[in-house]
Amino acid sequence: MSYLLLTPCLAALLGAGPSVGKEGPEAELQGTWIAQALYPWKDGDPDPAVVGRRLSFNRGHFTIADPGGKLLYSGTYKLEGGVLTESRRAATAIRFVHTDGLAKGQTWLGIYGTCPTLRITDNSSDPGKPRPPEIHPKDKRGYASVRYERAGK
Prior knowledge:
single chain; 2 helices; 11% helix
């Protein structure tokens, strides 16, 4: 049964299958996503302050706003290709370059997967760290992992 779920997820991450669309992973991200949970990896407990934040992707630009619509982060993003994580799972590398907001001047390196929800793990807790090797890294210090659902679901 787990193989039945895994196959479409891998196909979507590797750029095949109907869930990605004609334009690939870029098209799959477009639109607004609502944060469901943040795992800052400090004590292993999710951070409820992030729930409800809105992450929007629009043709190379991103914004993150609080649930009331106040802009928190803004900038450009670039998909940097597929990666095979240390646990042999497919993911896509992403780079967030902040041009406005609370992290202006910072660059966050991350990876993400979209099956069945969007999950981004990046070095936002410590931008000096390298890109995380896993969506759920063993060494959790300096990494944050956010689970999102598409808005309107």
